[in-house]
Amino acid sequence: MKKLLKLILMAMVIAAFAACCSKKDNENTGNVTGQDTSLDDIKAKGELVLGLDDAFPPMGFKDDNQEIVGFDIDVAREVCKRMGVELVIQPISWDAIKFELSTKNIDCIWNGMTYNEERAEAMTLSIPYMKNTQVAIVLAASEVNTLADLAGKTVVIQNGSTASDAIDANEGFKDSLKELVKVDDNVQALLDLKVSGSDAVVMDEVVARYYMEKEAGTYKILKETLADEDYVVGFRKGEEALCTEVGKYLKEMAEDGTLAQISETWMGEDLTTVE
Ligand code: GLN
Questions:
Q1: Which of 12, 167, 193, 205 has its CA 20 to 30 A from that of 179?
Q2: Rounded to the nearest whole angstrom, what is the distance from the C-alpha of residue 160 to the centroid of ligand 1?
């Protein structure tokens, strides 16, 4: 019985991904004619505005020269080059991603954004391009070694992030915590950890690994993970022409090795999953 349930669940997840950029998303297109002009609009405008939380290394973040760089930025820049448009980068608050898209301040969210059902309802999502897990990171000197050790302790997460989904999905863990604090971004969350304002941060593994290396000896990542995730690019609901075009170049770049090469530059290995 359990096996059957698992199979049904798996089929549902596959169906959800198969529906990426699918026609039925067209319903909510803002265009008065009801037609999806998203790709033509971007080409006419000559630019694609990418929205990101600029404190999310190595996907998209401000480097020491205050320049926004990262894996997603390099991939998006190459996709834009192949599409014949300019890439424009627009930092936004992660908690406002749906609002920023709907008000057309940005054309896409491209920043290690995790697939979830709520986002699939509200946006048109690309094919998945990378896997991620949600992990708990603590100070290296901490006595905390397991999720159970965090009972009665304070955990910080980024507001609007899927770290919240991961914690909700682990009820026992959530109930065991003294407090769950939400801050604007992961830089702030790690700062809280360092000044002993909290005991752990739950965040994307790819970001946690970046800081493990950058600030060697400062942190440790707990072995138990909280959730397995897929990264996707988010577009306005119904803009599947643009979504499909971006997906087409992602596939092309997987085939010609560009994606693997960009991943190796930023992550030291190929973590991409586009086929
Ligand atoms: N992967 C997390 C999410 O999608 C965090 C992404 C981010 O802050 N850029 O919510």
A1: 205
A2: 8
Number of separate domains in the chain: 2
Identify the bridge partners of residue 138 per DSSP, sorted by sequence position.
220
Residue 223 lies in a domain: yes
Q: Which residue of 90, 123, 161 sits with most ligand 1 atoms within 8 Å of its CB, as the best mutation to test the pocket?
A: 161
Instruction: Say yes or no: CB of residue 58 within 6 Å of ligand 1.
Output: no
Mutate to test the pocket of ligand 1, among 113, 123, 182, 228 (most ligand atoms within 8 A of CB): 113
Same domain, 116 and 247: yes
Domain span at residue 154 reads 132-229
CATH of the domain at 185: 3.40.190.10
Does 53 sit in the ligand 1 pocket, CB within 6 Å? yes
Whether residues 44 and 120 share a domain: the answer is: yes
Give residue-wise pLDDT tens across range 249-266.
Answer: 999 999 999 999 999 999
CA of 32 to the centre of ligand 1 (A): 32
Q: Whole-angstrom Cα distance, residue 99 to residue 142?
A: 38
36 lines ligand 1 (CB under 6 A): no
**What is the CA(15)–ligand 1 centre distance, in A?**
23
